[in-house]
Amino acid sequence: MKLTVAIVCAMATALLAAAPSSAEAGDGELKVGYYDNKCSGVEDIVRSHVIKAIIQDRGIGGSLIRLIFHDCFVRGCDGSVLLNASDENPRPETAAPVSIGLEGFDILEEIKADLERRCPGVVSCADILIFAARDASSILSNGRVRFDVPAGRLDGVVSSAYEAQAELPDPTFTIRQLIDNFARKNFTVEELVVLSGAHSVGDGHCSSFTARLAAPPDQITPSYRNLLNYRCSRGGGADPAVVNNARDEDLATVARFMPAFVGKLRPVSALDNTYYRNNLDKVVNFNSDWQLLTQDEARGHVREYADNAALWDHDFAASLLKLSKLPMPVGSKGEIRNKCGAINHSKS
């Protein structure tokens, strides 16, 4: 049956008028290949942007991996961590102290703009964030960390610094606090240890591990403590950033403070199990890292992953997949944002 242009336009207008501007979270199931018939090539487009960004700055890969954790642990995987401060909401999740140093927002906004040009109003920022974190994990691990991402998430319209501070684990936490925090999201002690391995890449600000700068030798190797003190006293700005993995330090600094560690340096950072070997040697930045050695089960898993890189690759992929499925709170409203940094409509 042939339709005139006028009839087609009228039908399209009616459909658009009937389409809701937002929906309730949980209306649909997440599905691998969700965009295949809605916006072909979505995952390829995301991956191409992530590859380009990591080629320009390999450190951005760790930032994208960190974003999946910060997003999904607060209100589920709804892209709420991407919302900018506004007159309506001056303190979004990024304003929380625990969110210090979050990066990668510009990359996700570029991906969103590209997808909006191709398929307006179809791909959520929440899904883009998950795809990008998965791809960054794959690239930084040389393809060893890989999994299929089910998609179909909506973007949340709420972002609260108070909620972020209350929900996310703090780097000063004790092992008991860490276990309880992860348990609230239905993650086991093993999964706590697995996800902590993301600290094999990225960096942290000195304010996040201040107490470690004076910690005793049974908690941190003195030579590494001296290196951190040097970095934090000489780094740029009031609160310098220091690489999480001593393997990624520069040769001159390591040779000065930890000459025996020089042979462990690598030309490029990689997502791997070196975090666990460093932890056993007490060469880690955060108190929350060292705390994994203070409880029998957690310490056992640290040793397990230090000895078995392939097992950690597999378990990290599985834990990221589980993380990516954390739902929005029941009754939450969601939408497909036009831009990742702002909601489409007023919540009033």
From TrEMBL:
Query: Pfam families per the record?
Result: peroxidase (PF00141)
InterPro entries per record: Haem_peroxidase (IPR002016), Haem_peroxidase_sf (IPR010255), Peroxidase_pln (IPR000823), Peroxidases_AS (IPR019794), Peroxidases_heam-ligand_BS (IPR019793), Secretory_peroxidase (IPR033905)
Please, which domain of life does this record's source organism belong to? Eukaryota
Looking at the keywords, is Acyltransferase present? no
* Record localization: Secreted
By sequence similarity, the record places it as follows: Belongs to the peroxidase family. Ascorbate peroxidase subfamily.
Q: Name one GO biological process term.
A: response to stress
Keywords, comma-separated and alphabetical: Calcium, Disulfide bond, Glycoprotein, Heme, Hydrogen peroxide, Iron, Metal-binding, Oxidoreductase, Peroxidase, Pyrrolidone carboxylic acid, Secreted, Signal
How is this protein annotated for GO cellular component? extracellular region; plant-type cell wall
Q: Which reaction does it catalyse?
A: 2 a phenolic donor + H2O2 = 2 a phenolic radical donor + 2 H2O
State a single Gene Ontology molecular function. Answer: lactoperoxidase activity
Supply the name of the protein: Peroxidase
Q: Which Gene3D superfamilies match?
A: 1.10.520.10, Peroxidase, domain 2
Which amino acids does the record list as binding substrate?
Answer: P169
Which positions in this protein are listed as binding Ca(2+) 1? D71, V74, G76, D78, S80
Residue span(s) of domain Plant heme peroxidase family profile: 29-344
As given in the record, the signal peptide range reads 1-25
Binding residues annotated for Ca(2+) 2, in chain numbering: D250, T253, D272
Active site, UniProt feature: H70
Indicate whether Phosphoprotein appears among the record's keywords. Answer: no
Question: What is known about what this protein does?
Answer: Removal of H(2)O(2), oxidation of toxic reductants, biosynthesis and degradation of lignin, suberization, auxin catabolism, response to environmental stresses such as wounding, pathogen attack and oxidative stress. These functions might be dependent on each isozyme/isoform in each plant tissue.
- Disulfide bond sites: C39-C119, C72-C77, C125-C340, C206-C232
Q: How is the cofactor bound?
A: Binds 1 heme b (iron(II)-protoporphyrin IX) group per subunit. Binds 2 calcium ions per subunit.
Q: Where is this site: Transition state stabilizer?
A: R66
Q: What cofactor does this protein call for?
A: heme b; Ca(2+)
